[in-house]
Every structure is written in C-alpha cells, then in structure tokens.
UniProtKB/TrEMBL annotation:
Keywords: Isomerase. InterPro entries: DSBA-like_thioredoxin_dom, Thioredoxin-like_sf. It comes from Azoarcus indigens. PANTHER family: GLUTATHIONE S-TRANSFERASE KAPPA, THIOREDOXIN SUPERFAMILY PROTEIN. Pfam families: DSBA. This is Putative DsbA family dithiol-disulfide isomerase.
Length: 218
C-alpha cells in the first residue's frame, strides 16, 4: 500500500522545519501500525518572500521591519523555539546573519528528486538544508555552502557547483511554485495527500497521522 504526500515548503520557514519533523513522526507511527505502508514524499517549492534579493538580505533587520521591532521578533523566536523543542528541532536564531533567497536550495531538491535519488538521500538533503539555516546559521542561498551540504549527503561537489552556477532547473522550480500558488496555497507547510486530502500548517504528529489514515481509508 502506498501513500503519496506532496509537501509544499520553504527552507527559511521555521514552521516548515517543525512540520517536517512532525510529518516524519506521523509517518513512523503509522508505519508501525501498517507495516507494509510506503509513503512517497514529494517536495514542492514555495517562496515565502519572492522579492528576496538573489544575494539575500540581513536576517534580523528584515524580521524587525516585518514584525514591528526587536521585542516582537524576540517573542516570535521564543514561541517558535518552544514549539520545535519537543520535536527535536533546536533553533539557533542568533546564529543567522543572512535571510537567503531559496531558489538554489529548491533547485538542489528538485535535482535530487528529478534524477531519482533515493527517498533516504532526499530526506537527508532536506534535513541538512533546514539544519544548516536554522541551527548552524549557514547561508543556504550561497552556491559553495550548498555544494558542501550536498557533498555531505553523498553528492559530487563539483557537479553541484556546476549545476547551481547554471540555470538548469530554474524554470521548472519557478513553474512549480507558481502552480502551487494557483492551487490557492498561501502559507506553508502545506500537505497534499494522494491529491485529494489537504492539511495546512505545522499540525501535530497526531493530526497529520489522522489525515494520512483518512486518506488510506478512502
């Protein structure tokens, strides 16, 4: 038995990082009850801020302008950190200097899926991208940084640099992001299960599991 889950996400979205951890737990819990179940996860791109400069922008200044000031940003970070901790997501917002444009990170994920990388490798790559940004404060809009991340996940560094310095995958990623918008997705994470059930937001593992189970029963 197979479930197909489209996960709409952006790598600079903290709730997407939490949502991924909770989805992983929901899938693991469901597979314990349904040992033969295969869940195929397909990543779809979303740009929280499509107008982010290609070189990125100062992280803290962007947030303070968007949310009203230092106090508001600190409160938001505290809330997100408290939400992620029980799921093993350990944010280090103070380490983030750059809010990156995530086109290259999405292209890297697209490349892995399009060429048929194993689910384990795609999982490793997406986890590493989130972790690099939110826990290590690395600039995931930078080609060299992304090449290091991909190489640590088993890719060939030189091939990744050549790919990211070119334009391959750019139109496909932008087209997918536009298609997602046309479906009415305006916030992430967003889950589409077997193209019939949808869930929005960083729901608990229990809620996500119930949604997956509902799709199985339909």
């Amino acid at each position: 038995m197979t479930l197909n889950v489209d996960l709409v996400s952006d790598f600079v979205c903290p709730w997407c990082y939490i949502g991924k951890a909770r989805l992983n737990q929901a899938i693991a819990d469901l597979q314990q009850k349904q040992p033969g179940l295969e869940v195929r996860l397909n990543w779809l791109p979303f740009f929280l801020n499509p107008d982010t400069p290609a070189a990125g922008e100062p992280y803290r200044a962007y947030l303070e302008k968007k949310f009203g000031g230092p106090r508001e940003v600190d409160a938001l970070h505290d809330k997100v950190a408290a939400a992620g901790a029980p799921d093993g997501v350990n944010f280090a917002f103070d380490r983030i200097a750059v809010r990156p444009y995530t086109l290259k990170a999405h292209r890297l994920t697209y490349r892995a899926q399009a060429r048929g990388d194993t689910p384990e490798r795609v999982h490793s790559l997406t986890d590493a991208l989130f972790r690099a940004h939110f826990e290590e404060g690395r600039n995931i809009g930078d080609t060299e940084t992304l090449a290091d991340i991909a190489a640590a996940c088993g890719d060939r560094r030189e091939a990744v640099v050549a790919y990211l310095n070119g334009s391959e995958g750019t139109d496909a990623v932008k087209r997918m992001a536009e298609q997602v918008r046309k479906l009415g997705v305006t916030s992430v994470p967003f889950y589409i299960v077997d193209r019939q059930f949808t869930l929005s937001g960083a729901q608990s593992a229990a809620v996500l599991g119930a949604g997956l189970l509902q799709a199985l029963s339909s």
